[in-house]
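Dear all,

This email documents one entry for the complex benchmark we are building for the journal club exercise. For each entry we list the sequence lines for every component of the assembly. Then comes the predicted three-dimensional structure of the complex as a token string, followed by one or two observations. Please use this as the template for your own entries, and keep the labels exactly as they appear.
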Amino acid sequence: MVRLEKLIEEERELMQRMARMCPSFETHPWVEGPPLSQRRVAIITTAGLHGRHDRPFQLDPNDFYRVIPGDVQANDLVMSHISAGFDRSAYLRDWNVAFPIDRLREMAAEGIIGSVADFHYSYNSPSAKVEAAGAIREVAGLLKKDNVDAVLLFPV
Amino acid sequence: MPTASISFIRPHTEVIRPPRALWVPFDIGRTLGPPNDAAFQKRVLLALMGMFEAPAGPCLEDFPEDEPETSDEIMVLTCPVDFAQDVADTEETDQLQAAFRREMRAMRPWYDMGVARRQRTAVGASGIGVEALGDFIYAFARGEEPDNPRKDISLAYTLKFAVVDLKAYYIEGITAQPGQAGASGKRLADWFWDETVAAKVLMELRKVGEANADSVMNQIGIGFIVPDKILRRYKN
């Protein structure tokens, strides 16, 4: 985000308080793979994106993710993220700001990456807590079935 | 599964220590930086995916570029709202509603222009059409509870997503006007919250939500209609 030194004091303190609430982990798994030009890339976003006719996200502890097909077009998606607190104005002008699928398609065509996954996944970040661990493992299994070996995690 | 993540708040990522993270100096919500700048977005992606070549981790790197400066020359709506004129024209007793309707009508050609140019609209989370959006929201601001047009979510959530759609309608519209395509997020937020009738309606809506006995409506009214940053500014 904007550099912390540029925030007003109240916001800076909030960010520092939140840092003390962040989870830390004893282990740090490290998984390698082939060169980038051979990798199959998928997106996981916490922007609360989903299909226009799909169910919107709510603050439901048992409802974690939506599936976005790889051939999705810009007008297919809407954003039902619950927060009013982040800047949506860039995404409203260009979906690639939050979901850079056009860029990935271009990079696949240019041979920079191997391919783009058949499916991508979307969470609603206020719901993505410890309770989501099972759903996250489920998505990891689905990514493996799609032969994905590079996952890009995009927050908003 | 190999992952690489964008980081907005570096101190948080320093605690969590994911395998690969690229800190970016952009506002939250602008994950890849500026809109409609494919070359910039590609540089962010290349920096992020370049971390797949790192020999060991966890690794946290900084993206070296700030977003390019914008001119921020946003203009007033082409049809400035005149409350008194609205009442004289329409004989409506509710001046705020009349002004709101007029403002939404004034924005419509620009919203349509934006949709035509972008071949896309993000309006639609609520499932309520643009034509009905304003009156649906305004009914709540007046203390009424209209019928829920959706069966799959509660009325409080339909309202929340109608507000999301309303803001999108305005931002998509104003950024379709001449010279506004690259306006910064801050300037757009300042314009929306300081200069539009829609923002006045949403502030009324928040007050109604605050006093609402329904816990979900109350939660949404207090927390998810008006950004905290804007509320702090109004209070100051």
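Observations: The two ends of chain B are 48 Å apart (CA to CA). Chain B has a mean pLDDT of 91.
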